[in-house]
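sry for the spam today, last one i promise. C-alpha cells for design, 281 residues
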C-alpha cells in the first residue's frame, strides 16, 4: 500500500511538472499582440497596413481589441485587455504611465490640424502655411472664429494664439456649443466662421464639411504627436510584453517612418496624412 502511495505521489508530481511546462510554453509562445488603436489610424487604413508589414516580418499576429476615441482605449488598457496602445499624447496617456498601467511611452508619428473657413474667406488666409499668421489675420479682420472645444484643437489653438501675439477676445470669437464634435464644421458654416480641426476627419468626411473649405495646412507646428506604449508586465503579468515591445520598436524603425510619408501620398494625393518623427521629409 505504501509503495502504491509513493507511486501515485510521484505521478502527481510528474503531471504537475508537465502542466507547468505547458503553461510556460504557452506564455513564451504567445504570438498575438493585442492592440488598442486610435480611430484615425484604422479609419485611414494606416494601422492595418503597418500591422501586415509587422506580421510578415516577425511572425506575430496583430489583433485590434479596441479602436475609437481615447477614453475607450484608456478603459481597455486599465482593464489589462491589451498589450499595446497607440493614440494622441495628452493627459490620458501621461496618467496611464503615472498610474502604472503603461510603460515605455514614445512618440512615433504625428497628424496635422488645419484651418477651415467659408469659401469667400473674409480674412484672406487661403494658401497660408503659418497657422499663427492666419489667426492673426482672422483677428485683424474681426472675422468670426469658433472656439472649438475638441481637446487637440484647443491645445493647438492656444499655442497658435500665443505665437500670434493676439488675445482672442471680442464678439468675433464664438463659443462652441455643439453637442457632438463631429458637427463642428456645420456649426462653423452656420456662423460663417473659421475653425481649427484635424485634417483627417475633415478630409475624409468624418466631420461633414459641406460649405466649408480647407484654407490653411502645411504648418509643422500644427501637428500633434501619437504615442505608443506597452502594458506594464508588473501590473498585468499575462500581457505579451515581448510582442508589444517588438511592435513598438517596429513603429519607430526606419522602414515604418519612411512608409508614413509614402502612405499619405498614395491615399491622399497632395500630402501625407501622418508624419514621421525620426525621418527628415
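last one done:
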Amino acid at each position: 500500500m505504501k509503495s502504491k502511495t509513493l507511486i501515485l505521489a510521484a505521478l502527481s508530481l510528474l503531471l504537475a511538472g508537465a502542466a507547468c511546462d505547458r503553461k510556460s510554453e504557452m506564455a513564451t509562445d504567445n504570438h498575438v499582440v493585442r492592440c488598442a488603436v486610435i480611430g484615425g489610424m484604422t479609419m485611414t487604413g494606416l494601422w492595418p497596413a503597418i500591422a501586415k508589414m509587422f506580421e510578415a516580418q516577425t511572425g506575430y499576429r496583430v489583433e485590434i481589441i479596441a479602436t475609437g476615441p481615447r477614453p475607450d482605449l484608456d478603459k481597455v488598457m486599465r482593464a489589462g485587455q491589451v498589450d499595446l496602445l497607440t493614440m494622441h499624447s495628452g493627459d490620458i496617456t501621461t496618467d496611464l504611465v503615472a498610474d502604472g498601467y503603461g510603460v515605455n511611452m514614445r512618440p512615433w508619428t504625428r497628424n496635422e490640424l488645419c484651418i477651415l473657413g467659408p469659401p469667400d474667406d473674409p480674412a484672406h488666409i487661403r494658401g497660408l502655411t503659418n497657422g499663427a499668421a492666419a489667426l492673426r489675420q482672422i483677428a485683424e479682420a474681426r472675422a468670426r472664429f469658433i472656439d472649438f472645444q475638441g481637446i487637440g484643437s484647443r491645445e493647438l489653438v492656444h499655442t497658435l494664439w500665443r505665437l500670434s501675439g493676439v488675445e482672442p477676445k471680442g464678439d468675433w470669437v464664438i463659443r462652441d456649443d455643439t453637442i457632438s464634435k463631429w458637427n463642428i464644421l456645420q456649426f462653423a458654416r452656420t456662423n460663417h466662421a473659421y475653425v481649427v480641426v484635424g485634417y483627417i476627419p475633415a478630409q475624409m468626411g468624418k466631420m461633414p464639411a459641406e460649405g466649408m473649405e480647407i484654407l490653411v495646412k502645411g504648418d509643422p507646428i500644427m501637428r500633434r504627436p501619437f504615442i505608443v506604449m506597452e502594458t506594464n508586465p508588473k501590473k498585468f503579468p499575462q500581457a505579451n510584453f515581448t510582442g508589444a515591445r517588438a511592435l513598438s520598436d517596429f513603429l519607430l524603425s526606419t522602414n515604418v517612418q519612411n512608409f508614413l510619408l509614402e502612405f499619405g501620398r498614395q491615399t491622399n494625393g497632395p500630402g501625407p496624412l501622418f508624419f514621421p518623427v525620426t525621418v527628415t521629409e
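Strands lie at 32-38, 61-68, 84-88, 102-117, 145-147, 173-175, 195-198, 213-216, 223-231, 274-276. ok im logging off now
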